[in-house]
Known about the structure:
The complex is a heterotrimer of chains A (326), B (267) and C (262).
Chain A: E1 7-20, H1 25-31, E2 36-50, E3 55-59, H2 66-73, E4 81-86, H3 96-99, E5 102-106, H4 118-129, H5 133-147, H6 162-174, E6 180-184, H7 192-209, E7 212-216, H8 220-226, E8 229-234, E9 237-243, H9 244-251, E10 254-261, E11 273-278, E12 281-287, H10 291-301, E13 304-310, H11 314-325
Parallel strand pairs in A: 3-7, 3-8, 5-6, 6-7
Antiparallel strand pairs in A: 1-2, 1-4, 8-9, 10-12, 10-13, 11-12
Helix pairs in contact in A: 4-6, 9-11
Chain B: H1 2-21, H2 23-50, H3 60-76, H4 84-91, H5 93-98, H6 104-134, H7 142-167, H8 177-190, H9 202-209, H10 218-225, H11 230-265
Helix pairs in contact in B: 1-6, 2-3, 2-6, 3-6, 3-10, 6-7, 7-10, 7-11
Chain C: H1 2-20, H2 24-48, E1 53-54, E2 57-58, H3 59-93, H4 96-100, H5 106-112, H6 120-137, H7 143-169, H8 179-189, H9 200-209, H10 212-223, H11 229-261
Antiparallel strand pairs in C: 1-2
Helix pairs in contact in C: 1-5, 2-3, 3-6, 3-7, 3-10, 7-10, 7-11
Amino acid sequence: MSDGPAIQVTALSKTFLVPEREAGLKAALRSLFVRKHRAVKAVDAISFSVAPGEVVGFLGPNGAGKTTTLKMLSGLLYPTAGDVRVLGFVPSRRERAFLSQITLVMGQRNQLVWDLPVVDSFDLNRAIYRIPTSDFVATRDEFVELLDLRDLLQKPVRNLSLGERMKVEIAASLLHRPRVLFLDEPTIGLDVTMQRRIRAFLAEYNRRTGATVLLTSHYMADVEALCRRVIVIHHGRILYDGDLGALVGRFTASKTIGLTVEDGAADLSAFGEVIGRDGGRIMLRVPKADATRIAGRLLAAFAVTDLTIEEPPIEDAIEQVFAQEA
Amino acid sequence: MRPWADFYWTSMKTAIAGQFQYRVANYFWMIGMIAEPVIYLIVWSTVAASRGGSVGGFTPAEFAAYYIVWTLVRNMNIVFTPYGWEWRIRQGELSAMLVRPVHVLHYDVAYFAGWKVVIIVLWLPIAVILSAFFHPAFDITPLEVVVFFFAIWGAYLIRSMWQSALGAITFWTVRVSAIFELYFAAELLLSGRLVPIALLPPWAQRIADFLPFRWSFGFPIEALAGELTPEQLLTGLGIQALWIAGGIAVVSIVWRFAVRHYTAVGG
Amino acid sequence: MVRSLRVAWLYLRLGVLNELQYRVNFFVQIVQSVVALATGLAALALVFSYTQTLAGWTQPELLAVLGVYVLVGGLIKMSIQPNMNRLMEDVQGGTLDFVLTKPEDAQVLVSVREVRLWQFVDVLLGAAVLAVAVSQLGEAIGMREALLFAFALTLGGAIIYSVWLIITTGAFWIVRMEFVNELMQGIYQTGRWPVDVYPGALRLGLTFLVPVGIAITVPASALTARLTPPTLLLAVAVAAVLVTFSRWFWIYGLRHYSGASA
């Protein structure tokens, strides 16, 4: 079990039957007895594998099949076709040994005991996951340290702020030291500081335990901070699986030139598409192949005090991927 | 065995601590529930009076004893409602429960068992006040007390199992409230909740014999407030055990299919 | 007053249109209402298998009480309960401010925002039971009885609305009020039987303190030729006192609420 991949997915598909409702009283009555269904392919024969200790970002627009895949990996959904192995287990069998080694965090889903102090929720998870007391205390204290939870432990959950609750929620979900983490939008709705905090904690957890992490997020910052590898999924298919840096290079045909000129009002539209002005700084989108040449011309034509050539933001790259698909 | 005891004990502690915070709300809630048995008590006492003092062998004082014990049994009877599953599915709470390595139903059985401890403590003053008002006739033997203690927890388990089985229907269709209503109406009439089983027409009593309802309601009440023989008391516990075992069997089968269905179609 | 009525009418229309989208609920409601009525009838039949009269009320007369109980219960579940529940949620969630910032009487607004159309099934069923009861009684129902009944029913509705509003206004002080539903339903159940059934202190409580007894028993009396002028006067007085007090208490509560949140 220790040698093979932590997650192995082969030709995995999930088809949902969606009931079709027609308007009107008669149709509503009829639908009580006979229902029409339409098959929707949420996940369409995807394959990938994740090595132990790897942190993989799972990207795609809403409805792309991310959550469906995560649910199949955590045993909440039974695949229509294909094969899933997580730590050598078949998730849909939902064996105790499997469930004790994974965790699924879904942002904003509260599994803490609302009216009681945080420590009580922790203790409940100790009992549920049968964590030996000494391990439990050690892990709890470690997380308290890392996430700075000391002042929260005795507070009732209902009195915590959204960000505090998420910190506690994540700590509670990892008390049993799972070897595989499925994180569905773990930082959704949090402010930037709290997002950074949680990111740092997850990275540290991964470093200390060598756990495998599969993460979906709308915040590219999450992905950039945590994942070297990303899997891009759209309409249930994998469009890209590989290095995060290479994704940008491969899918974008442009670069961004940022420059500061003494004449802040200068018209640069002849050199490329002006995509932003921030004070004296101007951002230009130019074709990738021409970037150096255009930069030279800019330097020659204006009194440039500062000039950079950058890859476009990763969001743009992702957008390009989906645009190509469509 | 030890991990299970630990899980149950920890969950019950959680429930006790949480519910005790809301003792005032819990109290008002219990007071609201008292209206129902008090109405039955008054109506049947009136009927007894109009027949010269007793009806079906019950005097007003015996009705008082019956319906005062009723208040505790009714509270022991409250378990996770079958209506709650729709909410759990929709809120994603069920998914969170399913990814943890304990069967979903253990959470409810353990949590509500803890709540019951709070309920019993809060109930004692209510029983005293009701007794001062309605002058019940109690004739209690030690065996009755012991049997009653086990019978109320037996009632709790019977109802937990059968309501969980009922609630599982939600996994196939959310339009379940009509089925639930029928179930609860049958229970109201045939459990000893509306009226002691002995006052039902004979044909209805015979139907009640073959349903779990009276064993989760009428029997525990009669164990303490009635005049059951030691033999009837112990047989009653035995039948309760059978209904619990049957309930566990049905629930584990139904739930296996329910979870399979859930994982096939998604929440 | 006219303006308030127009607002109420607008909300009612919106609510009905909204409910018409969920027509399957209509059938669910029919099943629920019929089951509930059947249970009530079974209880009644059980009582009368042992006796001829209950506290001086005959079987058809008690059937009339049950009819009014179901009918008024339908009105409660259609309008009073959902509005009061929403009010409670708004107070707890801090969203009552949306109501308070509207240029209309707040009490009117919080009382008309919700309507559960399909509960009307209960009103119809209750009316049907009443009709059966009246025909069993063989009394001739003339214009006078019908008007008296309608008047008594209005009084009953006003009484129950006022009591519920008074208790719900408590939400301005007490945060957890989930028990209000249980409490009010429990109290309302007492109306299933005529108020004369209840012994001394309870009867006084159900007449003056939480006058469910009046709200159900008086309209039923109007149809069964049991209503005496003193009883009717009493009902008018109780309704007037409760409506006035609930209005005062609501304004008092609002002042406390605005003061506390400022």
